[in-house]
Amino acid sequence: MDKVLLAEWEEQGAIIIAWPNYYTDWKENLEKIEKTYIEIVEQIADHELVIILSRDNNLKKNFSKEILKKIKIIIANYDDTWTRDYIGLSIETKDGSFLVDFKFNGWGEKYNHSRDNSINIQLREKGIISKLEHKYNHFVLEGGSIDSDGKGTILTTSKCLLNKNRNPNLSKKEIEKTLRESLGIKKTLWLNNGSISGDDTNSHIDTLARFCDEKNLVYSINNSIELKSMEKELKIIAQENQYDLIPIELPKPVFYKNRELPASYVNFLITNKKILVPIYGDENDSKAISTLQMLFPTRTIIGINCIEIIKQNGSLHCIAMQVSKNVLNLSLFE
Questions:
Q1: Which has the closest alpha carbon to 297: 18, 9, 21, 60?
Q2: Are residues 129 and 120 in contact, defined by beta-carbon separation less than 8 angstroms?
Q3: What tens digit of pLDDT does each residue of 139-167 get?
Q4: Does the structure show a pLDDT above 80 at 333?
Q5: Where are the domains of the chain?
Q6: Helix (H, G, I), strand (E, B), or coil: what is residue 245?
Q7: What single DSSP character describes residue 274?
Q8: Closest C-alpha to 216, from 196, 193, 234, 204
Q9: Is 254 exposed, middle or buried (0-12, 13-18, 19+ CB in 10 A)?
Q10: DSSP states of 18-45 as a string?
Q11: 3-333 falls under which CATH superfamily?
């Protein structure tokens, strides 16, 4: 059975997010972060279903009746809100589609994660997910650590996937074998360099470099040794695979409580009709938006101020995960 890991730009059934609450680290800026989440949901729900994981139904009051028609609130038990990394990955086969559930270990046992790791099971038990493959839940893999071209190739980083805090007993070849078996990956492109200050994921690819289509790659760049070294690697990968490379300059460093935050434009979110781009009140915001508009001419580019999101070490793409309509029980949303 041939499998393919869908690319983010392919047709989506819904975007899944988890609502911030007082029981997560968001409590220190809860009111402000909720405003950001409301803006994000409104930008998606005008054209696509948004599934919101929540501890209660009180957040309905934040949305108009029209927007609520495209929102489904699911009561769930979760540790934190980074659904990119613990919602399963959408796979398509000749025999149908399903969601593959991997193990989530809090980015290498850094944070509480047991409830996040159970979310896909919770969604299946509630009937939200109709088809779930659970046999790879022993293998640690976060959605933000790989990026797919939808044709069997992924881009990833050795600092994350080969880190001993993920799958310490597996070699690089064994990890590639598991990716091939679980996701149908035929080619894994590895970056050995690249990191952004403030990132605590061990260099997730979705802050560093992304496919925009099968032939165009965007990547984060500034004058740091890490990103300059990554750029050299990407140029070799681009030459070998006939990719076009497009750099996106990082914003100036953003700080909170004397700590640098992981501000990246490459952490954009693709929806069925839009590209939501994280912006930071920086002079490079407009350049990032215009670059992505060139690369996604059929989608509307929307800038979302993500200063509040990056205070918790992620950005816009990290808080959302797309799922194929074929893995959803759509009758529940009618």
A1: 9
A2: yes
A3: 999 999 999 999 999 999 999 999 999 99
A4: no
A5: 3-333
A6: strand
A7: E
A8: 234
A9: buried
A10: E---TTSGGGGGHHHHHHHHHHHHHHHH
A11: L-arginine/glycine Amidinotransferase; Chain A (3.75.10.10)
CA pair distance 329, 126, nearest whole angstrom: 10
Task: Name the β-bridge partners of 71.
Answer: 50
Q: Alpha-carbon distance 196 to 219, whole Å? A: 12
Separation of alpha carbons 184 and 251, rounded Å? 36
Neighbours of 198 (CB within 10 A): 20
Alpha carbons 40 and 320: distance in angstroms, whole number: 10
Tokens of 151: 């044709």
197-to-149, 260, 269 alpha-carbon distances in Å: 27, 6, 21
At residue 285, φ and ψ (nearest 5 deg) are: -55, -50
Q: How far apart are CA 303 and CA 312, in angstroms?
A: 19
The amino acid present at 38, given as its one-letter code, is I
How many Cβ atoms from other residues are within 10 Å of residue 163's Cβ? Answer: 18
Q: Residue 295 has which token pair?
A: 């690369």
Phi first, then psi: what are they for 146, rounded to 5°? -135, 155
| Residues 145/107, Cβ–Cβ less than 8 Å | no
pTM over 0.90: yes
